[in-house]
Amino acid sequence: MIGVIDLLLRDGKGNLVVVDHKTSKLAKSQSAVDSDLQTTAYSYLLAANRFVFPLAEVQARFDVLRKLKTPKFEQYYTRRGPDSRKRFAHLTATVLSGIENRVFLPCKGWLCADCEYGEACQNW
Ligand code: SF4
What residues does each domain of the chain span? Predict the structure, then answer.
């Protein structure tokens, strides 16, 4: 798996902090922040590449520029531990297995408008 983290910081205690930059019209809920898979993927990459110990928690933050009439900057904090990474590994292995077995489940959403597989998807 290959990924690029927007920003990786060290706090005053030397701990890594993953920062993801977002723009959004809506505010994020803490439950959405805590269950975000992108952050879990970054935590997984840091552990898999030995930037953090296997059982360490990884701190993460979303820096969000709210697209409002008067733009607003917000920060949301979360953490990912070994249980999250284990679940993520299981999830990605399952997705990979689905791909290898040619499983395709169309998931209509906002990405469909620009999807290069739109026609093939419609004819599937
Ligand atoms: S059009 Fe593209 S993004 Fe939308 S469901 Fe089909 S494959 Fe997925």
Answer: 7-123
